[in-house]
Amino acid sequence: MNINIDNNNGGRRVTTGGRMGYNRRRGRNRGRSGPDRFHQYNSNNRQGGFDRDGDADMAGASRDNPHGVRPTYRGRGGGHQRSWSAGDRSQNSAARRLGLPIRQDASSGSNSSTWFKVTIPFARELGKDYIFQSINNAVEIPFSPYCFLMGNDGKAMFYIQGADQASALQTMNKRITLPNGYKMIITVRQSEAPPFKMDQGVVALIEAAVQRRWNPVALMLNLSNFANDDVLKAEGIFASLTRPNVFHRIVEIIEEKIPQMEILDLSENKLMKLDVLGSARLSSLKRLNLGKNQIRHDSELETLKNLKLVEVNLENNPLCNQFKDPEKYISAIRKRFPKLKVLDGNDLPAPIGTAIDEEEAVVPHRLPGSVQDHSVNGVLTSFNAEFFRIFDSSNRQGLLDAYHDQAIFTMSYFINFEHQSKQWKFDKYFADSRNFMKVNDEGKKLRVVKLGRLPIVSSFTSAFPPTTHDFGSFTVDSHIATAALIVFTVYGVFKELESEEKSAPIRAFYRTFVLIPDGAGVFKIVNDQLTLTNASGPQASNAFTNNALPSMSVAQAVPTMPSEDIKNQMIVQFSQQSGMNEGFSRQCLEVHEWNYDKAGQAFLELNGQGKIPPEAFVKSST
Questions:
Q1: Contacts 24+ apart (CB under 8 A), 337-341
Q2: Half-sphere exposure of 443 (CA within 13 A, CB side)
Q3: What percentage of the chain has pLDDT greater than the value 90?
Q4: 473: phi then psi, degrees, rounded to nearest 5
Q5: CA–CA dist 416, 539 (Å, integer)
Q6: Has residue 258 got a pLDDT over 80?
Q7: Are 227 and 239 in contact (CB under 8 A)?
Q8: Average pLDDT, the chain
Q9: Can you give the pLDDT at residue 46?
Q10: Number of C-beta neighbours around residue 126 at 10 A
Q11: What pLDDT, in 10s, does the model give residues 455-488?
Q12: 96-115: average pLDDT
């Protein structure tokens, strides 16, 4: 049903598509032949504020005044003028007059960000300029159309933002006289943001806008409220940074044209996500303004943690309301930006910690291993070769003699997400893992501890699949080496031989052993801590290319003679392995300057040649 208002008759006569006339002086309901003769609201026809034809619902409006605004009269029977109250002038009232649902803006409480699609039929001969000029002359508020399009059916379509503009244009429906004598039909519908196509012309305009906003003296780029850039707006381009393609293109422009940028203002852009900015290469950026956006949680800043920011502004974002304690707010933001000095315009106290500049810090050269006393090289080399050979065998029970009766074993795993190599699952290790970051059950923390050599070795069969270790990947660090205690850590990789994966998983491991001598002077494992994680890309690609067991090296030190305690321990160990008595074992070690490997090699050669006297194998009975 079309409502036609005849302006030549003072707005008094309203026709309804050929049906009976209506005169305001006769009253609102006279001459009505039926309940739906003119217009009756049906709640079943209303869908989101629109009828089934998509037009704004006019339910509850007066019959000759479809927008629901009651006029005030001047004089008896004369014309009338609209009298707008303060509430009617508000954007919420404008939306209600259109029968539109009120959508509150999270930051301002208004619905000024709501979009509307305007359709004008029979507009091909009118053209864009005539349509815009006619509407602009008729309405009393600023008129800002976006994305004009002329359809194949002759309909002109464009978008406007805000309920005030929508109300003003709907009021002009069939009130603008066209050159052919007909009235301009204007249909207004609530819609999503206008479609946006990044063609070469649009990209060129966006690049020009970025260049206009760039300050080369201050090294600052001001992208505040970019969607309302005057030049882009005049071209009918809605280049909002909430559109990923727009934000991506602007970031590319920054990377290519102005990589020296130190200050970036992104305020008032309604940003909720920052992943586009987080993936950018902005090594020079030091100050970032994100004020007056829609960032709801501080976790969104996690994507920006690689930026070395010294100043951040987050004022008037929803996330600020989540922190009642200012100290917790500062702590949460500083967690992402450790170098932060200014937050929301306020100077921050210096952080507690070491004052080492990352750019000045020098990472020491990585050594293949570190052993405090070179005399234990042979002991550790022999231990690792024998221990992991048995562990990789089909019978791990052979490790029983390596453990002390009261030995303790624990295992835990973690996933290093910084490694971009394939992440194999750790499901099979979950039940026995003691990673306190993942295990909250206090009972489990105790249950997964293996106490005693038999439970320990039994768990190697039940909890671990068959493996093969890459001896060429081993790095050994000795922390303590005395006659009473040896503590060392082995780093390396191993491969699981039986797995549901398509390819055999390669794991990285860190294993710390604590050894003490038993009553016979033989070192036993009293503590064994194993940590598993995913192998890095280089570790996985270089695995098993050189499977020779490396000898332990001393960290940039000149070999020194072992202490008397270590000498005595070496003598006992050498005597047990060679079968010679301690006197000949001492002589053999002294001749080779207490180098355990050389002494052992010499013993094997001489014993194979039969040059060692029989009395060397006679041990004292005392």
A1: 337/301, 337/304, 337/305, 337/307, 337/309, 337/312, 339/308, 339/309, 339/310, 340/309, 340/310, 340/311, 340/312, 341/310, 341/311
A2: 0
A3: 17
A4: -90, -5
A5: 13
A6: yes
A7: yes
A8: 75
A9: 37
A10: 18
A11: 898 888 888 889 999 888 888 888 888 878 889 9
A12: 49
Interior/surface letters 83-122, b for 16+ CB within 10 angstroms, e for the rest: eeeeebebbbbbbbbbbbeeeeeeeeebbebbbbbbbbee
| Average pLDDT of the residues in 12-36 | 40
300-316 residues labelled b (16+ CB within 10 A) or e (exposed) = bbebbeebbbebbbbeb
| CB-based contact 121:134 (threshold 8 Å) | no
Beta-carbon contacts of 588 under 8 Å, excluding residues fewer than 6 positions away, are 574, 578, 580, 599, 602, 603
- Top-confidence residue, 477 or 25: 477
User: What whole-number distance in Å separates Cα of residue 417 and Cα of residue 426?
Assistant: 14
Kindly report the backbone phi and psi dihedral angles of residue 593, in degrees, each rounded to the nearest multiple of 5, phi listed first.
55, 40
pLDDT in tens, 30-61: 444 443 332 333 333 333 333 333 343 333 33
Long-range contacts of 314-323 (CB under 8 A, 24+ apart): 314/290, 314/343, 314/344, 315/291, 315/344, 315/345, 316/107, 316/291, 316/292, 317/290, 317/291, 317/292, 317/293, 318/106, 318/294, 319/295, 322/297, 322/298
H/E/C letters for each residue in 230-293? Answer: HHHHHCCCCCCCCCHHHHHHHHHHHHHHCCCCCEEECCCCCCCCCHHHHCCCCCCCCEEECCCC
Closest CA to 536 of 562, 554, 509, 575: 509
**Type and span of the H or E element at 566:** helix 564-578
The two three-digit tokens of residue 468, written as one number: 């093969």
Instruction: Tell me what the mean pLDDT of segment 201-209 comes to.
Output: 88
Distance (Å, rounded) from C-alpha 50 to C-alpha 311?
Answer: 48
pTM comes to: 0.38
Query: 583 pLDDT exceeds 60?
Result: yes
Q: What is the DSSP string of 331-380?
A: HHHHHH-TT--EETTEEPPPPSS----TTT--PPPPPSEE-S-GGGHHHH
**What contacts 106, CB < 8 A, 6 or more positions away?**
294, 318
